[in-house]
Amino acid sequence: MAEHNISNEQHYFPISSVAEILYCPRNFYYRVVEGAEDSNHHLLEGKLQEERRDERQRLVREGYRQDRSIHVSSEKLNLYGIVDIVEQGKEIYPVEYKKGFRKESLNDDVQVCAQAMALEEKLGQDINRGYIYYAGSKARREVIFDEDLRLMVENAVGLARNIALSGEIPPPLADNRCEGCALVNRCLPFEVKGIKENKAKAVRPQPGINLGRVLYVDEQGASLYKKGERVLVTKDQIKFKDIPLCNLDQVVLVGNVNLSSQLIKLFLGRGTEVHFISTKGKYYGCLQAALSKNSVLRIAQHRAYQKQEERLLYASEFVRGKLSNMRTNLLRYNRSLNNHSIDEAVSRIKNIIKRLEKAKDLNELMGLEGAGSRDYFSVFGLLIKDRVPFDFNKRSRRPPEDPANALLSFSYSLLLKDVITAVQVVGFDPFIGFLHRSDFGRPALALDIIEEFRPVVADSVVLTALNKGVIAEGDFEYRMGGCFLSETGRKKMYRLYEERRKEMITHPVFGYRISYLRTIELQARFLAKVLTKEIDGYKPFLVR
């Protein structure tokens, strides 16, 4: 049961959400308790129809009047909402618009009946019928407000109140009603049901709204402006790029790049994230719209952070994910190398993984994580082909001392921005982690989740860049004892990183095809469901 923020005091519920509870109680929980605002093409189409309909607020003819978008509320039922149309002739009645084709739908009937009951309270007169207009059929269906339907409205309000007060997440439907639901990527109905029943079923995941379309701007001195619904990238009055906003999911600005205030407002309004990275690969932060409304999750996250035993449990799983995937990386490469030193490192990492669950505190766990990472990087250079003109002897940072370390640091920064995006989309506080200390300005939770993805995403990109000869000596610059990627080198890494994060893999648990990018978000969502006590035990993403 999740700790929630709805008290026993009087609380008003939206009529549309209460009606939806008959179709899917879980939908009500996410919309009302967690404040979810997820959308899809069905909802967007309905919203556009509503905007077109509301262009004319009132229609008056002889003996007939039609008012649109009427706000109503009920103190008896604790409901509020907007009635699409209130028609008044010989009698008065509400009309609810739906975008689909005419059909019998109990939750539609409950919705229009609840609107009528709120109107009755407002107007002080009985309303006996209402209508539902289906835009797809261009036809109305009459709904009679008899005692049974009115009782159903009251029962739906009671159920809504119980869910809101208890904070208990209703079980997933996991049937054909989930298809086309805007909340399916948050709800994960089939995955949660599979985990609960211990028989994960392979299902085809819904396509994500975020298609991973990224604009990298690495032209020093360049500026980004808004022109209508397009983004212009210019420098010295020369236009480099002209991109429709609808084609952008994320913007990455590297180094000295300017952003107009108008474009900042537009990005915030559309939820388009902007990440800032230095030319040396340091991740500065991101520009993101207001904090998620999911206070339930953040309360659960802070509560778990305060409990040392629980915190150690999650931290241990992050380390297990990192070391296990490091070990798998070494095993994969050693199939062809057959190197004894790699075999020994694999064996040592395996022994360290076995000791993780016995770690008594975070200091001991961090010590094991450090030992495993040292073993991994002690043989990482052996994974680089002999003809590559770069050596790797040890991991060095701040600054990286050689080309391989420069590539690793830069890849980790690119990966970090995607993990930060995932934890913020899910609704976490990115600065409260379990393995990493929550120092000022440090995205500790993102640094936790990134661990299991470092070997399989970032390290893989680096080895590809080196072993396939994509990166050459001319792609690096040396300054003040440090080695950094040049502008041409960074552009090569953007391309390789984009290819890797969009690469489709078979999910090791659910068996469906999914990109690494979606897998990162999936792991963040599973952690959220563990923290809110919907499922037991966080399991890291482990490649085979």
Automatic annotation (TrEMBL):
It catalyses: exonucleolytic cleavage in the 5'- to 3'-direction to yield nucleoside 3'-phosphates. Residues 16-188 form the DUF83 domain. Its cofactor is Mg(2+); Mn(2+). One of its GO terms (biological process) is defense response to virus. InterPro entries: Cas1, CRISPR-assoc_Cas1, CRISPR-assoc_Cas1_C, CRISPR-assoc_Cas1_N, CRISPR-assoc_prot_Cas4, Dna2/Cas4_DUF83, PDDEXK-like_dom_sf. The keyword Transport does not apply. Mn(2+) binds at residues 369, 436, 451. Keywords: Antiviral defense, DNA-binding, Endonuclease, Exonuclease, Hydrolase, Iron, Iron-sulfur, Magnesium, Manganese, Metal-binding, Nuclease. Its EC number is 3.1.-.-. The keyword Nuclease applies. It comes from the Bacteria. One of its GO terms (molecular function) is endonuclease activity. CRISPR (clustered regularly interspaced short palindromic repeat), is an adaptive immune system that provides protection against mobile genetic elements (viruses, transposable elements and conjugative plasmids). CRISPR clusters contain spacers, sequences complementary to antecedent mobile elements, and target invading nucleic acids. CRISPR clusters are transcribed and processed into CRISPR RNA (crRNA). Acts as a dsDNA endonuclease. Involved in the integration of spacer DNA into the CRISPR cassette. Belongs to the CRISPR-associated endonuclease Cas1 family. Homodimer, forms a heterotetramer with a Cas2 homodimer. NCBIfam families: cas1, cas4. This is CRISPR-associated endonuclease Cas1. It comes from Desulforamulus reducens (strain ATCC BAA-1160 / DSM 100696 / MI-1). The gene is cas1.
